[in-house]
């Protein structure tokens, strides 16, 4: 099923021609309307879109970073007068000022089309009843999915986050067929569902899990599918680039199709800033091709992924990106070893009797870093056998060592002793700056 079949299955040559036209227009548009880009492009010797002869000429356009966007807080990147803006969103801004996103009426219209494509690719139709358990508010996730799902004609329940008992009640009573949530919240609801005292049939209509806004390993996906009884599809986006709708998985779940007519992706080596070889992993860089309120050129997402230009069985011609492997921001450097939390998650979730709830604690003592991996046992009765516990602990330790090439301290903790998350999970506790001794 397609939402905009003509665009989604466009011949590659036509798609590239469209991208080039739009990229040229976008360069002109930014140069003329955004003082920040006027200066940046001018410094790079670009004063007109005509200088971009081929798509690969994009490499002459300077990057935009999260710091650039923060420096322009709140409205320095606006390309239109404020009266043309009909919506403002902002990212959570856990460190420093939030990142602001602004939208013209046309931007909102386009955005819901992109999201409608993603949810249609995930299998949602007008027959579906979808509960949105993302927190509503400034965050782009909830309203982004909301309008895209309405556009498809699905019935939308704006549940927002929190009040998990009520969430389960709605899942049962409203005939919900799909859940929109973060992977961590979906996992938590799955756990509560099991304990809710209702037979699995009470949730029998539930079949779609449309998860996003944080990474999710394949192993974690399996756990969520098993506990909630859904088919999980991943989708991707961020406030800096509009919100969700940038890319999403189709029914074959072999990568996330980019809305390439609107978002032009590149992969670069984040050290050299040069494009990586085709098919090689690196940092995702995205240029918005249709956004009018706040266009961004070559935004460095810090997300590490790979692009796959092979045709997909679903018929979509738009490039697929791999599930995000990690963020350059999330990477922990411990004793000189690069560690992505997702690597640890894969090991824990795939190991019997432990997981999927875990916490990583990084400490520094006498200038030496150490990593403690706390993971929940799946069953409290395991605590009764000391030797069994020790064997399990060693097993987890050895598996982690072979995957990470690093010694970790593994602590097995009681079931339900670690924090549960209703939005994005915070599983890494880095105490290195606080505990310096
Ligand atoms: Zn596909």
Description of the structure:
- With about 425 residues, the protein is an alpha/beta fold.
- It folds into 2 domains: about 1-325, ANL, N-terminal domain (Rossmann fold); about 330-430, ANL, C-terminal domain (GMP Synthetase, Chain A, domain 3, 2-Layer Sandwich).
- It has 11 helices and 21 strands.
- The protein has helices spanning about 5-10, 10-35, 35-45, 65-70, 105-120, 140-150, 165-175, 185-195, 220-230, 340-350, 385-405; strands spanning about 85-90, 100-105, 130, 155, 180, 210, 230-240, 245-250, 255-260, 265-270, 280-290, 300-305, 305-310, 320, 325, 330-335, 335-340, 355-365, 370-375, 410-415, 430.
- Strands 4-3-5-6-7-8-9-14-13 form a 9-stranded mixed beta sheet, sandwiched between helices. A 4-stranded antiparallel beta sheet has the order 10-11-12-15.
- Helix 5 packs across helix 6 (about 140-150) and helix 9 crosses helix 10 (about 340-350).
- It is globular, with a radius of gyration of 23 Å.
- The mean pLDDT is about 95.
- Zinc ion (ZN) binds near residues 250, 257 and 314.
Assign the CATH topology of the largest domain: Rossmann fold
Low-confidence stretches: none
CATH-assigned homologous superfamily of the largest domain: ANL, N-terminal domain
Name the shape in a single word. Answer: globular
Please give the largest β-sheet.
9 strands, mixed
Number of strands: 21
Keywords:
single chain, 437 residues, alpha/beta, Rossmann fold, GMP Synthetase, Chain A, domain 3, 2 domains, nine-stranded mixed β-sheet, four-stranded antiparallel β-sheet, 31% helix, binds zinc ion
